[in-house]
Amino acid sequence: MDRVTVTEASQVSEARRRAVAIAQSIGFDETAAGRVAIVVTELSTNIVKYGVQGEILVGTYEDGTGTGLEILALDKGAGFPDLASALRDGHSTGGSAGEGLGAVRRLSDAFDIASRPGSGTAVVVRLAGIRPSSSDAVPAFGAVTVPLKGETANGDAYAVRERADGWTAIVADGLGHGPEAAKASEEAMRIFRRHQDAPPGTILSAVHAGLTHTRGGAVSVARYDRDRANLSLAGIGNVGGAIVSGMATKRTVSLAGTAGHAARRIQEFEYPMRPNDLFVLCSDGIATGFSIDGYPGLARAHPTLVAGVVYRDFARARDDATVLVVRGDAA
Fold first, then answer.
1. Most confidently modeled of 67-81, 88-102, 107-121, 231-245?
2. Partner residues linked to 114 by β-bridges
3. Does domain 2-128 have CATH number 3.30.1380.10?
4. Domain 141-327 belongs to what architecture?
């Protein structure tokens, strides 16, 4: 995802310019790009007005709901004491030329927001691309993935493959950061795609064997079985996972080592996981104690919004950061 820090009005135009450029690169026409410009202007102006510090993250999405552009606005400001009023069309956020968050929601193909007084605000917007989104479909997963500030190459990577009986997911964190770390994680994704129908332990073994010519990294592979209400996970290194079930969080186990270089053993661990539960998988750029227990109702939010809040509140400044959030069952 492209990331723009927003702390002052002069950065609004930069956020808008970069978002429009990404939209045009994936085929958005002039009208659709204009929608992007309005949405990003409103969201970034909102951060300047109400956020102590904030970011605009822009990336693309492709899942069962469609394809298109995804925008996250994250801040650690005062939050909205009256979210209903802030979302009312015509209620301008920060005196911008548009009509505030109400206009953003109206222009969006998908919209979700989390805001609490004293805890900041997070907004996710999806604008559909060539393949229109289905308004009735619920996204099975969402993610935030950004490189270390100052780097253009992201040493983290993730993938999710939906199956008839559930899904398979992977997060790879190349050792260190920069281009060589990115080569390791990209190779892990290539191997994953070739073996994605195998059990998690088998996939991880293939990744471990295939990363010997790279600097290696931490990798976790998970498989959700809908019929068994079960999650199987195999991991090497510090890609941390958790199953969020109601107000309870169960951490998953990843064994010590470096994929591609040192792994004493590869083992699958199994955990009960209900259809409405969330599985959260994070690279080492997210603090190991990440949790959404202190955010009432967030577990029911759009998966990308959940990922955005975890990233905002638990990211470390010294590494690439990835948060992948997958629902047990999107049906």
1. 231-245
2. 122
3. no
4. 4-Layer Sandwich (3.60)
